Amino acid sequence: MTVVTSSMVKALRDRTGAGMMDCKTALTETHGDMEQAVDWLRKKGLSKAAKKAERAATDGLIGVITKDKIGAIVEVNSETDFVARNAQFQELVRTITSLAPQAEGDLPKLLALPYPGKGAAVEEHMKSMVATIGENMSVRRTAQVSVTEGVVSEYVHNKVADGLGRIGVLVALDSKAEKPVLATLGRQIAMHVAAASPAAVRAEQLDPALIERERAVFTEQAKASGKGPEIVAKMVEGRLRKEFFQQVVLMQQTFLGAGGDGKATVEQVLKGAETTAGAPIKIATFVRYALGEGVGGNGGDSAKGAPAGKS
């Protein structure tokens, strides 16, 4: 029998906002499995923060760089925000970010690249900087996006310096439209992605396991209505479309960027831009890095450095 400790209960309570006894029961029923316990509370309607992302303790900076049709993004971690505000650390992240396009999204390749002016690879220079700055640091992940024709736009939120901040986004637009038009649109969409945190460009690109998890939660909640199986199934599919997909699918999200009316979806904004530009515009892919996401098992592909929503 799994022993449910007070620290486990506290961790679940911090994550969901549910009561202590409810958290203890959930962990007991799920044999101490934290993710299953979260779902157990959601199914019982006891989680007060089911959609809240777990905050990670990791600090540092996200760096982004774009060069016409290519964009790269890097996360470099430090132990504290104090170091993240250090000029030496910022220069370190800026330099590593400038090297990232050469690595093509491959972290080991990035770590093996020569660090400019130091006669050592990035990984070795990082080790020397640990001694200089006095905190443990690491290059955690990197990704790259590109288009054959079009632009790659960037956006940095909570910016501390050019190209450096706590959230970084790259958006690749595939189009023959004029680049100034695409660049403006791309930045607006990147700002939207930073705020809305979509999981994929289109619904068919979502992880099937993620959809099934939501379906299971909605099914348990719908069963409580006492309706028949056919009605329950319709209720579940309706909630998936109206609640889940509209929250996590970029094209179905309500556009939050400049010029939005609070009603139009990203897909509708894109169609409007196509009319103005006189050419089709496609969101080929995007990457969104939020500092520390995925640490402790709280992340998906984006936490591994894979471009999100790749088509």
Shape: flat
> Compute the gyration radius: what is it?
22 Å
SSE topology string: HHHEEHHHEEHEEEEHHHHE
Beta-strand content bin: 15-25%
Largest sheet: 4 strands, antiparallel
Number of strands: 9
Q: If strands are numbered along the chain, what order do they take across the biggest sheet?
A: 5-2-1-7
Question: Explain this structure to me?
Answer:
By secondary structure, the protein is of the alpha+beta class. The protein folds into 2 domains: 1-52, Orthogonal Bundle (Helicase, Ruva Protein, domain 3), CATH 1.10.8; 59-201 and 252-304, Tetrahydropterin Synthase, Chain A (2-Layer Sandwich). Helices cover 44% and strands 19% of the residues. The protein has helices spanning 6-16, 20-29, 34-43, 81-84, 87-103, 107-112, 122-133, 179-196, 208-223, 229-248, 266-277; strands spanning 59-67, 70-78, 114-115, 120-121, 138-146, 150-157, 164-165, 167-175, 281-290. The strands form 3 sheets. It has a 4-stranded antiparallel β-sheet. A hairpin with a 2-residue loop joins β1 (59-67) and β2. 39% of the residues are buried. Residues 49-57 and 296-311 have low confidence and may be disordered.
